[in-house]
């Protein structure tokens, strides 16, 4: 696949705005989830969010365990392939645990629906879901997450862990490609 041409980006949520919202989410999550619980982050997109969220949960007085699951649905393009693949293993320590499943974006809903089912099949107890961004207009399966950072229209976003063809994950803010 050809390397994408440079794109112009436009800031949607600056770093301070994201940080404030993550703090609020951690307070909501901290008040709602039982003790103990395990955060299961979806790689790669949720890696920055999980790093910030678990430290905000610590400030909220919680001590979550942290696991990651690597899934892929997009490859290098902008459109979902329509199928979700797990790369690597399943964390087995989720058995019997309350789980907070964390992704960067809920788009068609396939990733969260599929991984939620997979965690349940691997013996997870009650599962809550969290996405920093939600594009409800794109939903094909499933409903809204239990915890959502920002609802956005159908735009392609990057930054704060989120990529386009593996670029832009390092940006400390969330931007849209224009
Ligand atoms: P879903 O399975 O369609 O809900 O898609 C979720 C996944 O698609 C997310 O984990 C992202 O990796 C990816 N995705 C959805 N929208 C965007 C976007 O605007 N930018 C980058 N990745 C996206
Ligand atoms: Mg992703």
Molecular structure report:
- The protein is an alpha/beta fold and 178 residues long.
- The protein has three helices and nine strands.
- It has a six-stranded mixed beta sheet, with helices on both faces.
- Strand 5, helix 3 and strand 6 form a beta-alpha-beta unit.
- Helix 1 packs across helix 2.
- The longest helix is centred in the first third of the chain and has 18 residues.
- The chain starts with 8 loop residues before the first strand and ends with a strand.
- Magnesium ion binds next to strand 5.
Radius of gyration: 16 Å
- Characterize the biggest β-sheet: 6 strands, mixed
Low-pLDDT parts are none
Question: What structural class do helix, strand and pairing data support?
Answer: alpha/beta
Number of strands: 9
What is the topology, as strand order, of the major beta sheet? 4-3-2-5-6-7
Instruction: List cofactors, ions and other ligands.
Output: inosinic acid, magnesium ion
Beta-sheet strand percentage? Answer: 25-35%
**What is the overall shape?**
globular
Q: What is the percent of helical residues?
A: 10-25%
Note the total helix count. 3
Mean pLDDT: 92
What is the straight-line distance between the termini?
A: 21 Å
What is the H-and-E element order?
A: EHEHEEEHEEEE
